[in-house]
Amino acid sequence: MEPLVLVPGVQGRWEYMGRTVDALSVHFRVVTFSLRGNSIDEYADQVGRALDERKIDRAIVCGVSFGGRVALRFAATASARTSALVLVSTPGPAWHLRPRHVTYTRWPRVFGPLFLAEAPWRLRAELLSALPDRRARWAFRLEALRTLMTAPPPLTAMAARARMIDPVSAMADCGRVTAPTLVVTGEPHMDHVVSGTSSDYIRLIAGARGAILERTGHLGTMTRPDAFAALVHDFVRSVRLRPGENGQGKFQPDQVA
């Protein structure tokens, strides 16, 4: 199987990506890890070390949310080791913290629990859409609660990562990416985290393709993991079988039902 490195989001724990790992593992040899470091560059170095430890020369690099910024940096600085790049619900260069979230990042131990408590309200519409069956929604919530208890997110580190999201460096990285790139978003009206800025990467990265994972918002990799994995698999096949200019494939769909 072709190797794929999965970089987790701002919580930094791979455990939150369990459903995604399982779905992607049907098609790829999945490598993942929890983030360790104090900068985007250090996190990007983790990708390289993960490949070295497994004696993998090149891999698809897939980053989710904040992890997309890490994947973008790796693809920009290690193009020879990046066979394809997948950015999922990644904060675009125009993204910025909302004023109250700036406050949260200054005092994460005080306000971090409030940020986590807001999550059910932010995600309610997406869960109803992606998981219309009530039992499936409860199973998802219980699984998320178990993960929260067994792999508690490091609030201070999460706040530091949020402050690392720099528009200038993102713009520069986009210009250095040469790998075939897929930009995956949920439906804009349901993603209350990146506010539709992810789609900017489609025009900023040469030859990048875009796809919308329908009935999802920010958590499509977890709420509809099988559909997401199939989307990535189809994209990778397209760029392998029908390479176009600069190695980019002719992947066409803008939406995946």
What would you say about this model in short?
The protein has 257 residues and is α/β, with parallel strands linked by helices. It has helices at residues 18-24, 40-53, 66-77, 99-106, 108-130, 134-150, 155-164, 167-174, 200-204, 220-223, 225-241, and strands at 3-7, 29-32, 59-64, 82-88, 181-185, 209-213, 255-256.
Describe it for me?
- The structure is a single chain.
- Residues 243-257 have low confidence and may be disordered.
- This protein has helices at residues 18-24, 40-53, 66-77, 99-106, 108-130, 134-150, 155-164, 167-174, 200-204, 220-223, 225-241, and strands at 3-7, 29-32, 59-64, 82-88, 181-185, 209-213, 255-256.
- It has a seven-stranded parallel sheet, sandwiched between helices.
- The protein is globular, with a radius of gyration of 17 Å.
- The chain has eleven helices and seven strands.
- 49% of the residues lie in helices and 13% in strands.
Averaged pLDDT, please?
A: 88
How many helix segments? Answer: 11
| CATH C-level label of the largest domain | Alpha Beta
- Low-pLDDT windows of residues: 243-257
Q: Distance between termini? A: 26 Å
By secondary-structure content and strand pairing, the structural class works out as: alpha/beta
N-to-C series of helices and strands: EHEHEHEHHHHHEHEHHE
CATH homologous superfamily label of the largest domain: Alpha/Beta hydrolase fold, catalytic domain
Residues in helix, %? 40-55%
- CATH fold description of the largest domain: Rossmann fold
What is the multimeric organization of the chains shown?
single chain
How is the main sheet built? Answer: 7 strands, parallel
Kindly report the spatial arrangement of strands forming the biggest sheet: 2-1-3-4-5-6-7
